[in-house]
Each structure stands twice: as C-alpha cells, then as structure tokens.
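Progress against Task 2.4 (sequence-to-structure conversion) is shown through the following example record, which the project officer requested during the mid-term review.
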Amino acid sequence: MRLHGATIIDPVNVTGIDDTNIINDISSLMSYNFRQDISNYLSELKNTTMRSLKDLIEFNIEHADKELDHEYSPNQNTFISSENQTNFTANDYADLYNKTRQIGGRYGIDAT
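Structure tokens generated for the chain above:
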C-alpha cells in the first residue's frame, strides 16, 4: 500500500470505545442471525433430517462423546445462547447493527 502512496498508521489507537461492550454487541448480532442462518443452510441439505439449531443441539447431546471434542468444541454455549435469544426484536437488531457500523467506521477506523 505504501508503494501506491498510502500512509500506514500502525498501531491504530481508537479511544473512547469500550471494548467489552463492542464484543457483547457483536456477539448479540451474530446470535440473532445464527439461528436463522443455520436453519436456512440445513434446509438445503438432502442427506440429513437436521432442520434447526434445536435439532443440532439435541443431536450433540445424544452423541456428545463423538461431537463435543474437549479441545476444539467442549460445549454448545454458542448454539444454546443463539437458540435461547428470544427477546431481541428486529428494531433492537437494526439499532445495534447501526451502532456497531458507526463504531467500526465513523468512530473507529475513519476517526484515526
């Protein structure tokens, strides 16, 4: 990039942003999308009866000795969190999405 005239600022110091809240906000956005996204994906598969995140959770419980590797996937916290997220409305999602876009853009990299 430097060869083409860009000024590189490294490291970037973004101030005034609470990292913990950002991580929680992004996790909420991902959980909101994950349940529907995994259902859409599973609906296209012809070689399984799995059709929902709940199906996957139940399958993993029934086959925990094979599916829940203690090193790489010791639990289903992400699945369960996504499945249980029911009080998040479309408006909540839109507000949080816009907030994280501003933090990542206007108040983040664009502000440096």
